[in-house]
Specification:
It is a single chain. The protein has helices at 2-20, 36-55, 78-92, 94-97, 130-141, 169-177, and strands at residues 117-125, 146-152, 157-163, 182-190. With 192 residues, it is α+β, with helices and mostly antiparallel strands. The protein folds into two domains: 2-55 and 76-100; 102-190, Alpha-Beta Plaits (2-Layer Sandwich). Helix 1 crosses helix 2, helix 1 crosses helix 3 (78-92) and helix 2 packs antiparallel against helix 3 (78-92).
Length: 192
C-alpha cells in the first residue's frame, strides 16, 4: 500500500494543496515522479506475491493439541487482501482521475473588445500530470480578465488569452509561480 501511495504522492499532494488553500506546496513532491514506474512495479510485485501466497494450495495440516480458536484474523483473509488491492489500484490510477477534485472556475466572458485580447504562451517547469495542469488553470482563472486558459504537462506550456486592460502578463506569471511551478519563459502573440 505504501508503494502505491508513494507512486502517486506527487499528484495527491497537488490536489491536497489546492483543497487546503496552500497552492505553493503543490510541486514539493514532484521530484518523486521519475520513480513512479519503479513504485508501480514494486506495488504490483508485492500484491502479486501476496495473492500467490493466499491462493496457492495449502499443505495438509498437522494434527496437534494446540489451543486454537480456528478463526483467521481479518488482516489475513482474502477479503482484506481484496480491499488492499482495490485501494492500491485507486492510488496508482490517481493521476488519471485527479482532475475531478478541482472546482470548475472557468470564466464566462460576456463582452471583450477584440483589440484588448492578448494571447501569451508560458513555458512552465515542474508540471508532471493532469492534476498539475488543472492547478495552473485554476490559479490563472482566479485573475480578472482571463478569457481562456489551456495547459499541457507533456509540453510544459500554458496558453492564456486575457483582456490586457484588466490584467497583465506579469500578474499571470505571478499566479503560475504562486502554485509552486515556475515560469521559465513566455511568448506574447496578438490574438487574430
Amino acid at each position: 500500500m505504501l508503494a502505491a501511495i508513494a507512486a502517486s504522492l506527487w499528484c495527491i499532494t497537488t490536489v491536497l494543496a489546492l483543497l487546503a488553500g496552500t497552492s505553493g506546496l503543490a510541486s514539493t513532491l514532484s521530484w518523486m515522479e521519475p520513480a513512479r514506474p519503479y513504485l508501480l512495479g514494486l506495488t504490483v510485485a508485492v500484491l502479486g506475491f501476496a495473492w500467490y501466497q493466499k491462493l496457492k494450495p495449502q499443505k495438509a495440516a498437522i494434527d496437534c493439541d494446540c489451543e486454537e480458536d480456528g478463526k483467521t484474523p481479518f488482516m489475513q483473509t482474502k477479503s482484506f487482501l481484496g480491499i488492499v488491492t482495490v485501494f492500491a489500484a485507486l492510488m496508482m490510477a490517481f493521476p488519471y482521475y485527479s482532475t475531478i477534485f478541482y472546482p470548475d472556475n472557468g470564466k464566462q466572458v460576456i463582452m471583450v473588445s477584440q483589440a484588448d485580447v492578448q494571447a501569451v504562451t508560458f513555458d512552465i517547469s515542474g508540471m508532471t500530470c493532469t492534476s498539475c495542469e488543472e492547478h495552473v488553470k485554476h490559479a490563472v482563472n482566479e485573475l480578472p480578465g482571463i478569457v481562456g486558459t489551456t495547459a499541457s504537462f507533456e509540453d510544459g506550456k500554458a496558453e492564456v488569452k486575457f483582456d490586457k486592460s484588466k490584467t497583465s502578463t506579469e500578474n499571470i506569471k505571478a499566479a503560475i509561480d504562486g502554485t509552486g511551478y515556475k515560469v521559465t519563459d513566455f511568448k506574447t502573440a496578438n490574438n487574430q
